[in-house]
Design goal:
2 helices; extended; alpha+beta; disordered N terminus; two-stranded antiparallel sheet
Length: about 90
């Protein structure tokens, strides 16, 4: 398995150049091309970061059901996955 930020070339893993994902996203919008990072990878990365923040804030371990995008019952309060919306910005589900 390769380390994050590397790719396997003919001479072994090589460090990838740094990428400005924010600028790449804006360029993709302007050009209607795809971004460097696939949206599924970006979404999973964001979920991991949010779960780490929630676990740190509440000082509890969490178990995540990636197939259903929810917490495993008994491992964390699902309320922490959303927030109260300001008046006028509520979601009508």
């Amino acid at each position: 398995m390769l380390a994050v930020g590397t790719w396997g070339g003919s001479r072994g893993p090589t460090q990838l150049p740094p990428v400005d994902h924010q600028q790449d996203f804006l360029n993709a919008i302007r050009s209607r091309n795809r971004t460097i990072c696939h949206e599924d990878i970006g979404a999973r990365t964001a979920v991991c970061c949010h779960l780490l923040k929630i676990a740190y804030r509440y000082r509890k371990s969490l178990k995540w059901d990636a197939a259903n995008n929810t917490l495993v019952p008994g491992h964390g309060d699902p309320v922490c996955l959303s927030r109260r919306y300001r008046h006028g910005y509520e979601l009508n589900a």
